[in-house]
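Lecture notes, part 5. Sequence design as translation. It can be helpful to think of inverse folding as translation between two languages: the language of shapes and the language of residues. The source text, in structure tokens, appears below.
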């Protein structure tokens, strides 16, 4: 089971949370491949923690659907099902739209400026065909909106679903397009003008559009 050897651990975080976040990231970006069998001792060594927090992290990842635990047998990364996009995106789009509505009511000018800068970076990466950085910048863009909503219950609900969506992105079940740049700009304009209804609508459409593109790509 290949795992990175140059992993640097973040500070001020419990071993369990650190293990969970890093393992989730490795599953999402494909470092740990679908159906790959996981060895908790090897993971613990790679992460620089004991086996207990790794096991606890794997249990949480099992609940969230990133790994499958087989008692007495072992643990493996779950498969990527492209068709799951039609199950994941509708509820996520609704939650993202709600986050945008909250953000439109209270986002600061500084945060709005940061949002504009992120979309400029996103646009540049799209034009350059830089898949990885466009994905990470898109993630930062939406995370900033979610953070501005200042609703921890909403944040927690979005987090798990978004992890599965970004996994689909990394496995190229969803492709970033230039249309997202314009949608981001429209979201920014709506938030800046405090148009709550428009901000929520465009944010929802930004996520739901991927379903139509999926159907077009696969001839469904």
């Amino acid at each position: 089971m290949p795992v990175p050897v140059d992993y640097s651990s973040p500070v001020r975080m419990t071993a369990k949370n650190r293990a969970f976040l890093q393992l989730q990231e490795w599953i999402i970006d494909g470092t740990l491949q679908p159906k790959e069998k996981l060895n908790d001792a090897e993971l613990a060594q790679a992460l620089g923690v004991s086996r207990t927090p790794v096991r606890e992290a794997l249990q949480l990842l099992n609940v969230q659907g990133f790994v499958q635990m087989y008692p007495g047998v072992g643990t493996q990364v779950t498969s990527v099902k492209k068709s799951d996009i039609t199950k994941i995106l509708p509820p996520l789009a609704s939650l993202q739209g709600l986050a945008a509505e909250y953000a439109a009511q209270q986002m600061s000018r500084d945060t709005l400026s940061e949002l504009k800068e992120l979309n400029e970076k996103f646009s540049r990466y799209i034009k350059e065909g830089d898949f990885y950085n466009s994905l990470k910048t898109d993630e930062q863009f939406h995370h900033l909106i979610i953070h501005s909503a200042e609703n921890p219950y909403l944040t927690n609900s979005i987090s798990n679903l978004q992890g599965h969506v970004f996994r689909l992105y990394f496995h190229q079940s969803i492709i970033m397009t230039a249309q997202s740049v314009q949608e981001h700009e429209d979201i920014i304009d709506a938030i800046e003008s405090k148009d709550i209804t428009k901000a929520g609508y465009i944010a929802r459409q930004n996520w739901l559009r991927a379903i139509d593109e999926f159907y077009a790509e696969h001839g469904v």
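The translated text above is only one of many valid answers, since several sequences can fold into similar shapes. The two ends are 36 Å apart (CA to CA).
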